[in-house]
Design goal:
Helices cover about 70% and strands about 0% of the residues. It is mainly α.
Length: about 150
């Protein structure tokens, strides 16, 4: 009999199993519709974020170009302000790097200058001929007296 009861039709003319399945199907359809709505909202949000990301990427590329131009201008000014430093020694991809390069170049120039001055001091030759001096130790006492009074030797 239990099977017979299940197979009995509902007042609308349907079997109870079919009505339950249709109810569950309707619930699943509602859940699917809600999921579709959330998915569409997420896709719209993703599209917005992708547009914002593309705009930020473009802005970042423009900023990088501006930074490269500013660094080139700064390097040019530093080269002009330091004519004693060879241009090849002033390099860097940031202001701090350029400043460090200038400091290193100045240190190198100072060391080279000190080395050159030390080498020049070692090989210094007085200008002109040396003064002639008379060796008085070879003179007799009489000659020394004559030399002292201004006489000839």
């Amino acid at each position: 009999m239990p099977e017979e009861e299940r197979n009995q039709e509902s007042p609308a003319g349907e079997k109870p199993e079919v009505a339950e399945l249709e109810r569950r199907l309707a619930e699943q359809d509602q859940a699917l519709a809600a999921s579709d709505t959330r998915l569409n909202e997420a896709e719209a949000r993703t599209a917005e974020l992708e547009k914002a990301l593309a705009a930020k990427d473009s802005e970042m590329a423009d900023t990088r170009k501006a930074l490269a131009g500013a660094l080139a201008s700064y390097r040019t000014l530093v080269v002009r302000a330091n004519p004693d430093i060879p241009e090849e020694l002033i390099a860097g991809d940031s202001i701090e790097a350029i400043d460090q390069a200038v400091a290193k170049a100045r240190s190198l120039i100072a060391r080279v200058k000190q080395g050159m001055e030390a080498a020049a001091a070692k090989s210094r030759v007085p200008a002109g001929a040396p003064q002639r001096t008379l060796d008085l130790s070879v003179l007799s006492p009489r000659e020394k007296i004559q030399y002292g009074i201004g006489g000839k030797r």
